[in-house]
Specification:
80% helix, 2 domains
């Protein structure tokens, strides 16, 4: 490989378990860094007082919306890069990355302007009390300004993941977390010549930390990965890239925003059983997020894996990876069930000493893990569908899972069996959602087969404006048949 060639991992030749295992490990590091970033901010702001912590809590939905938009666009970029790697068209990757970064900037700038102009009415509408608004108005203008440094790393890091490298972006995130832990208390409470800035200091620490992380991400893209260069991609190629990224990013970003809505509704339902039930539900949810990290990472890893293998015509590897991801999801879920049955009370006792909260949390940790395997299957199928350029299928499944299955079945379960019934209703919803996702993913993967047999156009071929001509992909198909890949 020449010094100017894009550095990448070939996901089309290595054994599938080893390939996905490496990618999942790298992504888990990044997911832990994201969780740690929020925990660190929350911890230091909590030292200022209850009002400051409550004010910052009101900002979380805005953060989630920005992250959802960035994650949706990132999936599109990851797919584009993965397809180009699979098709051996590495010279087009820098143009694609630059066009995607420009799109991210154009998308986030109006959000920053509108956000800053609507801080007071927006948070008043969200229910923030008057005494909290001064703290929110100190925090949010700076946080909105830092949104540029949220969007660019989302796009850049997912572009790296498209090449099969999940570790480099995660290391950038870990470095950002370490810097944030150091800078946060200095700017919140003051240090030497740095004055104490309270909640505004937390926002400045976020802006500084994310600016440094963005610089690191851009340096890796340009200098180490050779994925970024100062070359205008051209209007036609740039618009084609934008159409594809938005076609995937908009529906997925919108679907991801349903998650906090569904959680808010479930929390409201749980509240009828008392504040202890709400506390138990929230604490158990945090444990659940940790348990689901490998499954979330696996679903994310499926996008570049399927993208590269589809670009290379390695359709049999896509089928085998999907079967393996399904088996891993069920196996991990079974392990979580065993751990929950054996250690639910000890785990719950780490979070609370209240007897009723402990009982309800332990009960949830015994029942809820039954759904984890089904969630793993759902995440893996979502990754496959996005990689096959079926974002509407993936986002529709998310909406069905949350709004049509989870909430109604949880309500029905609560009516019949109160708190345990609500949890059981969620488990049944996850089972049905997993079944629907498997049927949908398998149907879309079966559409890949005709291109192997007859050389006809591959699934969703016209959905990817910057993809290689059909002839190029058919040439890759011949190479794909010769490879085995365990």
């Amino acid at each position: 490989m020449s010094d100017t060639a894009v550095k990448h991992h070939d996901l089309t030749v290595e054994p599938i378990p080893r390939t996905l295992g490496r990618m999942v490990g790298g992504m888990m590091v990044g997911l832990l860094a994201m969780a740690g970033f929020n925990v660190a901010d929350t911890y230091f702001v909590a030292q200022l007082g209850t009002d400051q912590l409550a004010a910052m809590t009101f900002t979380f939905p805005v953060s989630f919306v920005l992250a959802s938009v960035g994650r949706g666009m990132g999936i599109g970029v990851s797919l584009l890069v993965a397809r180009l790697v699979g098709q051996k068209r590495h010279d087009e990757i820098p143009d694609t990355v630059l066009a995607s970064l420009l799109l991210g900037l154009l998308a986030i700038l109006p959000v920053i302007v509108v956000g800053i102009l609507t801080i007071r009415p927006l948070f008043t509408l969200m229910g923030a009390r008057p005494e909290l608004l001064p703290y929110i108005e100190q925090y949010m203008p700076i946080y909105y300004a830092s949104a540029v440094f949220i969007m660019i790393p989302f796009v850049g890091n997912d572009a790296m993941r498209g090449t099969g490298d999940t570790l480099s972006p995660s290391l950038v995130m870990i470095a950002g977390l370490g810097l944030n832990i150091v800078v946060d208390p200095m700017m919140i409470f003051g240090f030497g010549p740095i004055p104490a800035m309270g909640v505004a200091g937390a926002a400045w620490a976020t802006l500084l930390t994310r600016a440094v992380s963005t610089s690191c991400s851009l340096y890796i893209l340009a200098a180490r990965k050779r994925m970024l260069r100062p070359h205008w991609p051209g209007r036609a190629k740039m618009l084609a890239c934008w159409r594809t990224v938005l076609a995937i990013g908009l529906p997925m970003g919108a679907a991801m925003m349903l998650q906090p809505l569904a959680m808010a509704i479930l929390t409201k339902v749980v509240s009828q059983f008392g504040k202890q039930a709400v506390a138990a539900f929230g604490a158990a949810g945090r444990v659940e997020m940790l348990a689901l990290l490998p499954l979330i990472a696996l679903g994310n890893a499926m996008v570049p894996f399927v993208g590269q293998n589809r670009g290379a015509g390695e359709h049999s590897r896509i089928h085998r990876a999907h079967r393996g991801a399904t088996a891993f999801g069920l196996g991990w879920g079974l392990l979580c069930v065993v751990v929950g049955l054996l250690f639910a009370r000890p785990i719950a006792s780490v979070f609370t000493a209240d007897g009723e909260v402990l009982r309800l949390m332990a009960l949830m940790l015994c029942i809820a893990p039954v759904a984890y395997g089904f969630k793993g299957i759902f995440f893996a199928c979502g990754g496959v569908l996005n990689a096959l350029q079926r974002p509407l299928h993936a986002s529709t499944l998310i909406a069905l899972r949350l709004l049509v299955l989870t909430i109604p079945l949880a309500l029905a379960g609560a009516l019949v069996g109160r708190y345990p019934g609500l949890i059981a209703g969620v488990v049944v919803a996850e089972l049905l959602a997993a079944a629907l996702s498997v049927l949908t993913a398998r149907r879309q993967m079966r559409l890949l087969v005709p291109s192997d047999a007859s050389g006809q156009r591959d699934l969703g071929r016209t959905d990817l404006p910057v993809a290689a001509p059909d002839e190029g992909e058919r040439q890759n198909l011949g190479q794909g048949r010769a490879r085995e890949g365990v």
